[in-house]
Design brief:
Elements lengths: L8 E5 L4 H11 L4 E6 L12 E4 L4 H11 L3 E5 L2
Parallel strand pairs: 1-2, 1-4, 2-3
Length: 79
């Protein structure tokens, strides 16, 4: 478990149901979170969560999204 000092959990969403389950769990517990998905494969369900869509080939944009949202905890989930 993280603390508020760790900021919101960032979920880098791959394929499958795991990223969605994590995001819904965070929302269900009323914890701030950010879903990050990649251009071209971003699932529709992220629209219900704070999210960013970034190009896979530009990791700097992913890092900027994390920093901009204040996330210090990152979870990569899905295929």
């Amino acid at each position: 478990m993280g603390t508020e000092a760790d900021g919101p959990l960032a979920i880098v969403a791959g394929a499958g149901v795991l990223p969605r389950l994590l995001a819904e769990g965070e929302r269900g517990e009323d914890r701030p979170h950010l879903v990050i998905a990649f251009d071209g494969i971003a699932p529709d369900w992220i629209q219900a969560h704070p999210h960013e869509v970034v190009p896979f080939e530009k990791p700097g944009r992913l890092l900027r999204a994390l920093k901009g949202y204040g996330s210090r905890r990152v979870c990569f989930a899905g295929g």
